[in-house]
Design a protein that fits this description.
The chain has 268 residues and is mainly α. Helix content is 86%, strand content 0%. The chain contains 10 helices and no strands.
Length: 268
């Protein structure tokens, strides 16, 4: 039995794999750039009824999930950090430490991951359904721009929803942190909010909002590009939804790393 050329040349196979990954990365970057450019061009002719529907679907309907996640995250941060706070006798700094963690890291990251699963997967599935069903091509056939009617309203709605939800989730998380500190560590609310207000600045809040906005833009562009590139039958819709979640989560972690380096250095 003779071995195939692929298994007989491991070095060549490795080069092929690297080349394939490089081509996939270039294709993905090109697709995202194309979606971003055509979305910007479609903004002046944006369909307002679709924008309203997307704001309700992506923003208002996601609010209960975002609030519940923020409340649980706030309590968990206090319970976890409280172990070390008590060990080193630094209870007075709990307000600063837990607030900093929520504003800078846990709040934007958790909100981004949850919304990538909820609104990113939904957006990709809906666009993939219309793509494989021929509706996108049908719009082009009658002279309408799918980016102005479908894509631009969704991208704008997801970005606005993420920015609005970041404000609510930060407030809810900090409120539940203070209540958890009161009942679990017997830390007075005055002490909690005292260090919070004295040691945190508006720039710390701006850093979290900037991160959330960038994550929202990444989710909208990635899910749109994945949905519009779907080909095949019903299975393509499922693959698009799953791929949108995976790629959005990967993009969020990479962007979180880069933004933390950039913003922390700028605000230091």
């Amino acid at each position: 039995m003779t071995s195939s050329p692929r298994t007989a040349n491991p070095e060549l196979n490795a080069i092929r794999s690297v080349g394939s990954l490089g081509l996939d990365a270039v294709r993905g970057t090109g697709a995202l750039a194309l979606v971003a450019a055509r979305t910007v061009l479609g903004l002046p002719r944006l369909e307002r009824r679709e924008l309203t529907r997307a704001l309700v679907q992506f923003g208002y309907d996601s609010l209960p999930l975002a609030m519940a996640t923020a409340a649980l995250a706030g309590v968990i941060v206090v319970l976890q950090s409280g172990l070390y706070i008590q060990r080193f006798g630094a209870r007075a700094f709990l307000g600063w430490a837990s607030g900093y963690g929520v504003l800078w890291e846990f709040g934007p990251l958790l909100l981004g991951l949850i919304m990538s699963a909820r609104i990113g997967a939904r957006n990709a599935a809906e666009l993939a359904t219309m793509q494989v069903g021929g509706q996108i091509e049908g719009l082009r056939g009658i002279g309408l721009d799918p980016f102005a009617i479908l894509v631009a309203p969704r991208v704008v709605a997801m970005e606005l929803s993420m920015l609005a939800m970041s404000t609510f989730t930060f407030l809810v998380a900090i409120l539940f942190e203070s209540v958890a500190a009161l009942f679990t560590l017997d830390l007075p609310l005055r002490t909690f909010f005292g260090t919070f207000s004295h040691m945190l600045s508006p720039l710390d809040i701006a850093g979290g909002v900037v991160k959330t906005g960038v994550f929202g833009l990444a989710i909208s562009l990635v899910s749109t590009a994945v949905g519009l590139s779907a080909r095949g039958g019903a299975q393509a819709v499922g693959r698009a939804a799953a791929s949108a979640v995976v790629q959005s989560c990967a993009a969020i972690f990479v962007l979180d790393f880069l933004l933390t380096l950039l913003l922390a250095g700028w605000m230091a």
